[in-house]
Fold each of these.
Amino acid sequence: MKKLIILFSGVSHLIYGFLTLYLPFYESEFIRYGFQDFRELIGGLQIVFGLSLLIGLYIYKLRLLSSLLLAIIMGGALGTRIYIGDGLVESMPAMVYLMINLYIFINVKKSKR
């Protein structure tokens, strides 16, 4: 089950990172968030950390670090959604991914493997 959650999170962040970089919809979304100058950076980080999480299935420290960094990004995404006044439905993906990545991080810390 833990591997499935890691796969889900890693692949999701990888896909979202690419969508952020290449879909015009996300250009307007990042303008709405007030982060238009950081769209490529955020998308790139999600690609790198999503891929790192997948590789982290085999490397403990990489799994630990990438899950923590993805949780931080998702915490920022949730905070941004709240700050700009988005409702629960719009904020739910950031909240869910924040919880998933925290779950991965906490379980990696507990297992130390």
Amino acid sequence: MSSTVDSRARASTPEESRRRGHLSDRARSERKLGWLLAGPAFVIMLLVTLYPIVQALWDSLFSFRLTAPGDKEFVFLGNYSTALSDIVFWRDLGVTLLITVVTVVVELVLGLALALVMHSAIKATRGLLRTAILVPYGIITVVSAFAWFYAFDITTGYVNNWLSWLPMIGPDFNWFASAGPSLFVIMASEIWKTTPFISLLLLSGLAQVPGELTEAARVDGASAWQRLSKVVLPNMKAAIMVAVVFRALDAFRIFDNVFIMTKGQYGTETLSLLAYRTSIGRLEIGLGSAISVILFICVMLIALVAIKVFKVDLTGGSGKGK
């Protein structure tokens, strides 16, 4: 009787062993191989990024300007208190959140549409189609920002002539004279450039959806929308989470487009531009470092919230929620 129980215990499945916290020999070897492959890159990235982060944290505890390095004064959290009590900081945070939310949502919808088109295209045209879609993403951000600026500029642009049939838009309409039109151009340029990146990530998720499931849903009479919402999207949850996290982190740190198009004027300044203007423009290194640290904390919080919301078990390899 005792030997039977022992044999049953030894015959537990790998899934049961994983639930109990035990790793099989194969799991240990795979984990070791993963660390061997990713370890060197992780160490290099840590060394490259750790020093600036620690330096920014250290500088944020002092009040000093580059023009007077001898007047360095330890203020502990005084710079953080100054930044968080400034209405400009909260205004720029609101602008940053607005750009992040709008661009990520629109890019997710458009990226999914492009991914579906690329996934269903015939093999003869897939390579050409993917190359054409990726062209905007291959353009340097600064070059893209200048192109959009000159297209919408009142003196050099051609967009006003194209959209002259719309109400309130004429040859004299200045897109960069107020917050609303300026933010529209900034967000449109971001969406145009980074939607291909989202579509590639979602395309990889579509490739992981079992064809048998969609075919079975089609046979059962499910409509295209039902197949997409009930079968396709739940099975590519991991890819959607990765796309949202990567893009949200990038959008929250937006700098190039805003700096080139408006330089933060007319209520378009973001947190990255505020940190730049404080550190480089006014040479207030301590306060600028504090704003940069707050920006870093916000980015980390966005990543944690997204991971918690999607509840994806990336270690399980299935891409399904727990």
